[in-house]
């Protein structure tokens, strides 16, 4: 199962890093990009700690949505389920759009974009209808490729920056001096540098979103309480290794004012600028396979969430219709229809459409982080009021302050997600930035009014029913008192 968690974590590493990092670098420079990622990573890790602690206490199938419905409000659980279904579905055209941008590295003819989009959409439907039996094995392969690629890019980038490239040019931190460590966006001077970081928050948050879904895999494994803590440690390791190291390396190799930085993978540009032959094409090919894999995973996930909502009577029963092989074909078709949105790249540039989808997807992730951490606070104070002290269960010493930190900044990110439109107004960008808020709110209010759900007092929250004991899950128990400090907070 731990291996499954590693695959899930690798699945979170995709176009947000391989493609979106270029835009972030162009918006706020290498130092600004590093600061933005550092800040966003603290919010992600705080959310992971909240999920990890709740899952260690109650390792139940469908953990995240179940926790929200149980300890916050059933209407919030319903809205969150649809939120993540939409999150996965809208990520499908996002990945396809990024794929077409990567293909333009070889084929710059814009009239061919529709062909690549169409071929990708057809391929996704074929795999999700007829190739599901090979899905697991293929994802293991793609996850391994992504991890190997990320490590290779970091090591290779470091070698080139130290003068190990064909031209033996020792780059170092040259581009931190010229054009500079930070970039002004929207406004000149210090104000512009601050605004640049605010604008970069959305693509940065998108690139690290999805890690919270690892809790679902952990909750449905053997020894779930032990495995969720191990998964948390892997998250920290990968956030530091893959994201922060990548930001530093790319910032060393590519100047923030380089033309086309926002429309191509900065990793490909870095090795191409260094004069390394063939390797940029190999990197681009693996990144394309990564984008295709991510699109496939998102379509699979969206269709299964939709199927699950149908089973729980939170969506029309037609979504539970399956083939003889057990494939929920109606859910696959409906989720797959979102992939057709990628054809918008035919009339607009890939980077523009990519940013629209990033805004839509990121808002879903930020809403999810806010709801999850709010649920954790009710869980935390509910246990405290009822005098329940979990024995042998992981509890973070940073809580409840980590959850409060995550809630504050998640709400802040939501509010500033469309900040750039107030300088250069675009109706499409404004809608993409904020349309999810009324959608999720209407789902919450509609369910609450229809079923007349109520938020239970903290003293009446259920911390007993259907929660397996340590013996039932075969967990040894992770007594916090017996753990070293770094292990207590999940760093090691």
Automatic annotation (TrEMBL):
The keyword rRNA-binding does not apply. Signal peptide: none annotated. Residues 7-456 form the Amino acid permease/ SLC12A domain. GO terms for cellular component: membrane. Coiled coil: none annotated. The chain crosses the membrane at residues 7-37, 43-72, 84-103, 115-135, 147-165, 194-214, 235-258, 278-307, 327-350, 356-381, 402-423, 429-450. The keyword Zinc does not apply. Keywords: Amino-acid transport, Membrane, Transmembrane, Transmembrane helix, Transport. It is found in: Membrane. It comes from the Eukaryota. GO terms for molecular function: amino acid transmembrane transporter activity. It holds the Pfam family AA_permease. It is a multi-pass membrane protein. This is Amino acid permease/ SLC12A domain-containing protein.
């Amino acid at each position: 199962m731990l291996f499954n968690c590693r695959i899930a974590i690798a699945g979170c590493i995709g176009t947000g890093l391989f493609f979106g990092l270029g835009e972030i670098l162009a918006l706020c420079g290498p130092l600004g990009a590093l600061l933005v990622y550092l800040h966003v990573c603290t919010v992600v890790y705080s959310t992971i700690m909240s999920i990890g602690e709740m899952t260690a206490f109650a390792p139940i199938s469908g953990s995240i949505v179940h926790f929200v419905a149980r300890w916050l409000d059933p209407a919030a659980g319903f809205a969150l389920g649809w939120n993540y279904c939409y999150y996965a579905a809208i990520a499908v055209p996002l990945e396809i759009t990024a794929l077409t941008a990567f293909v333009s590295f070889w084929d710059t003819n814009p009239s061919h974009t529709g062909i690549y989009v169409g071929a990708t959409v057809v391929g996704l439907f074929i795999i999700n209808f007829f190739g599901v039996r090979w899905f697991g094995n293929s994802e293991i392969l793609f996850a391994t490729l992504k991890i190997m690629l990320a490590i290779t890019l970091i090591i290779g980038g470091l070698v080139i920056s130290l003068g190990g490239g064909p031209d033996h040019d020792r780059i170092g931190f040259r581009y931190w001096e010229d054009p500079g460590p930070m970039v002004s966006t929207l406004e000149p001077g210090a104000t512009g540098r601050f605004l640049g970081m605010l604008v970069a928050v959305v693509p940065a948050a998108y690139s690290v979103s999805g890690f919270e879904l690892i809790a679902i895999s952990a909750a449905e494994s053997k020894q779930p309480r032990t495995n969720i803590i191990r998964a948390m440690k892997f998250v920290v390791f990968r956030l530091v290794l893959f994201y922060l190291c990548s930001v530093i390396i790319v910032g060393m190799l590519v100047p923030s004012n380089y033309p086309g930085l926002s429309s191509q993978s900065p990793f490909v540009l870095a090795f191409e600028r260094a004069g390394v032959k063939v390797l940029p094409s190999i990197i681009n090919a693996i990144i394309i396979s990564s984008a295709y894999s991510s699109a496939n995973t998102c379509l699979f996930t969206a269709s299964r969430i939709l199927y699950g909502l149908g089973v729980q009577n939170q969506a029309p029963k037609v979504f539970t219709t399956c083939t003889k092989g057990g494939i929920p074909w109606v859910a696959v078709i409906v989720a797959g229809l979102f992939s057709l949105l990628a054809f918008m790249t035919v009339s607009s540039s890939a980077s523009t459409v990519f940013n629209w989808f990033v805004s839509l997807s990121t808002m879903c992730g930020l809403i999810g982080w806010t709801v999850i951490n709010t649920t954790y606070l009710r869980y935390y104070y509910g246990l405290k009021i009822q005098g329940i002290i979990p024995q042998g269960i992981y509890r973070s010493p940073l809580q409840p302050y980590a959850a409060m930190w995550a809630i504050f900044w998640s709400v802040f990110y939501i509010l500033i997600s469309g900040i750039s439109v107030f300088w250069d107004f675009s109706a499409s960008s404004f809608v993409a930035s904020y349309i999810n808020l009324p959608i999720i709110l209407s789902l919450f209010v509609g369910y609450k009014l229809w079923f007349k759900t109520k938020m239970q007092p903290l003293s009446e929250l259920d911390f007993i029913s259907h929660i397996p004991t340590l013996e039932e899950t075969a967990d040894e128990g992770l007594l916090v008192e017996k753990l070293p400090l770094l292990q207590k907070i999940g760093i090691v």
